[in-house]
Design a protein that fits this description.
Blueprint lengths: L7 E8 L2 E8 L3 E6 L13 H4 L3 E7 L15 H14 L5 E6 L1 H12 L4 E7 L17 H6 L3 H5 L5 H6 L3 H12 L9 H9 L4 H12 L1 H10 L7 E5 L3 H8 L6 E5 L7 H4 L1 H12 L2
Parallel strand pairs: 3-4, 3-5, 5-6, 6-7, 7-8
Antiparallel strand pairs: 1-2, 2-4
């Protein structure tokens, strides 16, 4: 098990037909942190102690991730948002600050659409709720598009049974590839601890099968979004090099959004830029 930040403890909650693992610490109003592929709660370990000076920090392994449950179904983002809604309620809170990245960002966005009453304020980082624009992503892309981002794992996640046979025991290669291709200008920040811990979270057939379901349910996410496409809650959106792509995908679906750029960063902001990350979270949430 990765080292737990000082002042934090591991806990579990039985919600919405699954069990969620989370790491909790600090004092103040609740702040839910949700990461994405290919990370676990440990993605936030560099920022959790400083955030805990301002908030009651709750870093969650979303459904299928890390030490959370891996049920057979329920991986559409609307249902995963229900997981978080019930977690907030189970902890005795009426509202929480919400920050989500990547898949966690999709869940956070869905939470804001479907349960806005529990979202005090919202930050999304490099996560766009699946919408019909996703159908325009091509499996064959020119070099300039691949140089920005080429999410081949979205396709593999929709292939039944095969990925866990191909990728079991190979997560470290996937982690290293992600760092090289979308990790930003300073790969040295991704030390052995980060690489090995992230790989351990995705190295088993069971973990691969569960997390692939995040992608296998994109079609359902798109259908759910089509029925409720406009976010009226204000959003703060964090991004690094993917910001130009993100703006085009985000702006049509949000009434009010503030973009925050992390210069030189790739897709893993809390690992690459922990000081800026903390400062911008505190600023956005007014703590």
């Amino acid at each position: 098990m990765p080292k737990t930040p000082e002042g934090f403890e591991h806990a579990y909650a039985d919600v919405n037909g699954t069990r969620l693992h989370y790491v909790i610490g600090g004092e103040g109003e609740p702040l839910i942190l949700m990461g994405g592929f290919p990370r676990t709660w440990y993605y936030y370990h560099r920022v959790m102690p400083k955030l805990a000076e301002h908030f009651r920090v709750i870093a969650v392994d979303i459904r299928g991730m890390g030490d959370s449950g891996r049920p057979e179904s329920g991986y559409d983002k609307k249902n995963m948002a229900r997981d978080i809604y019930e977690l907030i309620r189970s902890l005795g809170y009426e509202q929480a600050y919400i920050e989500g990245e990547d898949i966690g960002g999709m869940v956070a966005w869905s939470l804001a659409l479907n349960h806005p009453e529990v979202v005090k304020k919202l930050i999304i980082a490099d996560g766009v709720h699946p919408n019909e624009g996703y159908y325009k992503f091509s499996m064959v892309q020119p070099p300039e598009a691949r140089a920005m981002i080429f999410p081949w794992w979205w396709v593999m996640g929709q292939v039944p049974d095969l990925p866990q046979k191909v990728f079991a025991g190979q997560a470290r290669a996937i982690i290293d590839w992600n760092i090289e291709k979308i990790g930003g200008d300073h790969p040295e920040v991704f030390d052995e601890d980060i690489r090995s811990t992230a790989a351990a979270g995705y190295d088993t057939p069971e973990a691969i099968a569960a997390t692939n379901k995040w992608f296998d349910m994109l079609y359902q996410d798109i259908a759910d979004f089509h029925a409720n496409p406009k976010l009226t809650l204000p959003m703060v959106y964090f991004s690094g090099k993917l910001l130009p792509v993100s703006k085009a995908l985000v702006e049509p679906f949000v009434d009010e959004v503030t973009f925050v750029e992390f210069p030189g960063a790739g897709h893993f902001l809390a690992e690459e830029c922990p000081e800026q990350f903390v400062a911008e979270v505190v600023k956005a949430f007014g703590a």
